[in-house]
Design brief:
Number of strands: 0
Strand content: under 5%
Number of domains: 1
Helix content: 40-55%
Radius of gyration: 14 Å
Number of helices: 3
Shape: globular
Amino acid sequence: MPGRSDNIVKNHFYKLIRKEFRRIKKAAKIKVPIKNDLTIKHIWELLKIYQLPISVLANENIIKEINLLKSQDNDFNPNCQSSMNKSMPTP
């Protein structure tokens, strides 16, 4: 993004990720604190754990990234326990 510092771009990106995380929490009806180091992979893990459709997300760029992760996830199994859900309630 021309004319914007790297820090502003980074902050905007993480704001979008936090926003999508809140959408997932609302859709799954869970109460999980937002981590400071959220990534697209965390969003994908939550979608898998709670078996939510990608359509709960709103940001087009994040949806593209999630679809890319989904295509690379050969052993996707919605019933598997990931390392992320050890601190999360089960659905």
